[in-house]
Amino acid sequence: MEKKKVVVGMSGGVDSSVAAWLLKEQGYQVIGVTMQIWQEEMAQQENGGCCGLSAVEDARRVAYMLDIPYYVMNFKLEFKKNVIDYFVSEYLKGRTPNPCIACNRYVKWESLLKRSLDIGADYIATGHYARIARLENGRTALCRSKTAAKDQTYALYNLTQEQLCHTLMPVGDYTKEEIRAIAKQIGLRTADKPDSQEICFIPDNDYAGFIDREAGEQVPKEGNFVTKDGTILGRHKGITHYTIGQRKGLGIALGTPVFVNEIRPDTNEVVLGSNEEVFGNTAYANQLNFMSVPDLEGEMEVTAKIRYSHRGAPCIIRKVESDKVRCDFAEPVRAITPGQAVVFYQGDLVVGGGCIM
């Protein structure tokens, strides 16, 4: 019987490189693909993570060493529409988006999977630290990776059932240290390559500057810092410079520490208050996607993560509309931020998630 064919998304990093090797060792017919998503300005970056020129060169050399076919596929338009334009639009609405989640769902899976199936592949695979679980109820879900420190399920919560059924994630069964050890053992040139930390299309981490350049005539104007009741405290530089819970970089001295409590795009106001006021017990989310269950019926006890770095907190979730869930936390959580994802877990299993409203 012919071996199953898998397209591995190769970023030039150690994780995707080892993923390709592991799958070849398991008997799959492996094809390496790097997704060309960089725009004109990104192409000038020598070391821009998965968007830099070095990514293609590193991935190509790894593919040559592994003796697997290798291609570069152009996804520039998909990336611009679903990631960059979305990122800018969300910030202009006073929200704080997670572009990696959008990229995973609409570029790395939707677009790559379609092209891979078109060329006869059975699966796509990545170097993400997560595991695929086939459940007794017929569903396919994500399971946390072996190592909590590197687990990436939060950024993958909105993959569809079809996408999950055609996905392999071999790296999820290993720790980062084990992956690097394998890379060294087999002589991969990417064994010691550092992980990419920043958003790939904003390597200098200046979100506001990037948005100002992309927004054109929609560049946000200066406005007022206010208290919750509307008392004016000072002037802000534009709402895209701020996110919920922020303290540093406010450029205002009030004699006591203040934090961003709320962003009001309709009135162009940024609400400041105490650290205690940043905490809340309730969140609402829409754009829901469920994995381990077909849908949410009644209420469910879960552990909910409200940002990538959040450890998770006990929470009861219940549907209040067809595409809206209410999350009630047992204890107050800090900086519930519109635009970020909230992801629900039961044990290591991803129940589903949504976008905080």
What is the topology?
Blueprint: E1 5-9, H1 14-25, E2 29-36, H2 53-66, E3 70-74, H3 76-92, H4 99-118, E4 123-125, E5 130-134, E6 140-144, H5 161-165, E7 167-168, H6 176-185, H7 207-215, E8 223-226, E9 232-236, E10 259-264, E11 269-273, E12 279-290, E13 299-305, E14 313-321, E15 324-334, E16 341-346, E17 349-356
- Provide the low-confidence segments as ranges: none
Form type: globular
Note the main sheet. 6 strands, antiparallel, barrel
Strand share of the residues?
A: 25-35%
- Rg, Cα atoms, Å: 21 Å
Strands, total number: 17
What does this structure look like?
This protein has 357 residues and is of the alpha/beta class. The chain has helices at residues 14-25, 53-66, 76-92, 99-118, 161-165, 176-185, 207-215, and strands at residues 5-9, 29-36, 70-74, 123-125, 130-134, 140-144, 167-168, 223-226, 232-236, 259-264, 269-273, 279-290, 299-305, 313-321, 324-334, 341-346, 349-356. A six-stranded antiparallel β-barrel has the order 12-15-14-13-16-17.
